[in-house]
Design goal:
With 353 residues, this protein is of the alpha/beta class. It folds into two domains: 138 residues, no CATH class; 135 residues, 3-Layer(aba) Sandwich (Rossmann fold), CATH 3.40.50.2300. It is 38% helix and 17% strand. It contains ten helices and twelve strands. The strands form two sheets. A six-stranded parallel sheet has the order 2-1-3-4-5-11, covered by helices on one side. It is globular and about 60 Å long. The N and C termini lie far apart (53 Å). 44% of the residues are buried.
């Protein structure tokens, strides 16, 4: 089936056995619709059209096509919760603007290879995100002569249009929170430091600890898989070597993704080590799973829906000629305190910063 085939709300509704109004509200990310129904609507759109575009009403065509390219999503675009919310933000704006949204996973780590979704197809703008986008790939995208807006930071000095979560600030928030709780020893679990997401979160964590007289040793920084298995294996490995360090207490762990934090929690539970005392854990992103873990996870919230919303708005500003120079929009994170951190040392109080 050709990518971008136009379908109606009624066709999607008939396939799912729901009403057209339910499909419409799901695409608008309405709070009246369950997350499972929204996921099914997105997945059905991709299966029927090859995109997450808003179905056409009648025979009226979309005004413009915008391609959302995500490098190396976790498992798939529909099951990667963070980027699914980014896409929701893009689609909600596109619907109001009469635009059609195309979706494609890519692997942008190496040399430039044009995404297959662009074969023999006119696209009016690109929104690009994901883990690791190489210089060669960015240069290839820039030669397509259409606006490109990035989600996140992908090189030292941004010279592109981008909407960027301030990961350095997020890392500092984690450090300030753990110190305020009374933790006195610290670990960082993250992805490879060749990726700016994890490099910046670690840099902010170091800065925040240094302000309070603490320092991370080389052995306190562990890089591995960024999913649940990665967090689990990282902590299991540390426990095999230095279990007593965990049991001595006042140890604060910064896991640079919520999935890694979930794996770390599982490993600590299996070892009989309590959370938040003697060990506290903070994750990153505030995915839906964070509030459902046991105990619920303290984490740094990044508004993924707003990232997608702002990225599309920036595309519109470029189309309108109001933005002509490389422009970056920085989003500030905030810490969400739950039950994997608490005052240690016998005090009963919040350790908000």
């Amino acid at each position: 089936m050709a990518l971008g085939k136009r379908i109606s709300l009624r066709q999607v509704a008939l396939k799912l056995g729901v009403s057209p109004s339910t499909v419409s509200r799901a695409l608008r990310d309405s709070s009246e619709i369950s997350e499972e129904t929204k996921r099914l609507v997105r997945q059905t759109l991709i299966e029927m059209t090859g995109s997450a575009g808003v179905p056409a009403r009648g025979a009226k065509p979309a005004l413009r096509d915008v391609a959302v390219l995500i490098s190396r999503p976790l498992r798939s675009l529909t099951s990667d919760e963070f980027f699914a919310q980014v896409i929701n933000g893009v689609v909600s704006c596109a619907e109001n603007a009469g635009c059609h949204v195309l979706l494609s996973p890519i692997d942008a780590r190496g040399d430039w290879v044009p995404p297959r979704i662009l074969d023999n197809r006119r696209v009016d703008a690109l929104i690009v995100g994901g883990i690791t986008i190489s210089k060669e790939y960015r240069e290839g995208l820039s030669r397509l002569s259409v606006p490109v807006v990035y989600i996140g930071k992908h090189h030292d000095e941004p010279a592109d249009h981008a909407v960027i979560p301030d990961n350095v600030r997020g890392g500092r928030l984690v450090a300030e929170h753990l110190v305020a709780c009374g933790y006195q020893r610290f670990l960082y679990l993250g992805g490879g430091l060749d990726t700016f997401v994890f490099r910046d979160r670690l840099e902010g964590f170091r800065q925040g600890l240094a302000q309070h007289g603490f320092k991370l040793r080389v052995a306190d920084v562990v890089s591995g898989g960024i999913d649940r298995v990665g967090g689990y294996e990282a902590v299991k490995g540390l426990l095999a070597r230095t279990a007593e360090d965990f049991r001595r207490g006042k140890l604060g762990i910064f896991a640079a993704t919520d999935w890694m934090a979930a794996g770390a929690l599982q490993a600590l539970h299996e070892a009989g080590i309590g959370v938040p005392d003697p060990v506290g854990i903070v994750g990153y992103s505030d995915l839906e799973l964070a509030s459902h873990l046991s105990p619920p996870l303290t984490t740094v919230r990044v508004d993924a829906y707003a990232l997608g919303h702002l990225a599309f708005r920036l595309v519109e500003e470029i189309w309108a000629g109001r933005v002509t120079m490389p422009t970056q929009v920085w989003m500030q994170p905030r810490l969400v305190e739950r039950s994997t951190t608490a005052k240690v040392g016998g005090e009963e109080a919040s350790c908000g910063v």
